[in-house]
Amino acid sequence: MKQDGINNSASSLSFSRKGKRKVMPGSSSENAEIGCAVKTKAAKIEADLKRTDGKPTLIRLLTPSNFTARDYKLCLSRAFCEWHMPSADKQVTLEGEDGKGFLVNFYWRDSRIRGGWRAFASYHGLVVGDALVLRLVSPLMFKVYIVRENASKEVGVDHGRLRS
What we know:
This protein is of the alpha+beta class. The protein has a single domain, classed as At1g16640 B3 domain, CATH 2.40.330.10. The protein contains three helices and 13 strands; from the N terminus they run E-E-E-E-H-E-E-H-E-E-E-H-E-E-E-E. The relative contact order is 0.16.
C-alpha cells in the first residue's frame, strides 16, 4: 500500500508486542525517516542562514535522478530560478564549505545545473539521501552546505572526500 509516496508494504513493517509499528532496517519507510531527518537539519541551516543576511536559499534532497550515468543534473525550483537567477543559460559557481569552487552550467529553461555537477558531486562524496542547502551569495554563485544522509560519514581534510 502506498501513502504519500512511501511504500508501507507488509515486508517493510513489523509490529511490536504492544501493536506499535516498527520500521525494518533497509526498508523504504526507514529511508523516508532518514530523509525526513536530513530535511529537518537542512531546514534549520536554511533558517539560520536567512536570519544572518536574508540571501535566497534553496534546499535540495538528492535522489537517484541526480546521479544517472547518462545525465548527472541538479534540478532547482522553477519559482526560485524565476525570482533569483538570470533568465538565460549561464555558468555559475558552486562553492563547497571548504571554499573550493566548481564552475557548472545553469540551464534557464530546465531550471537545472548540469555540466560540472558531476565533478562537484564526486569531489564532495555526495550520495542519494544527502541534502544540499544552496545559498545564492551573488547572481552567479552558490555557497553549498551539505547535510549527510549518513551522519557517521564525515568530510575530512582530504579535499572534502568522505572518510569513515
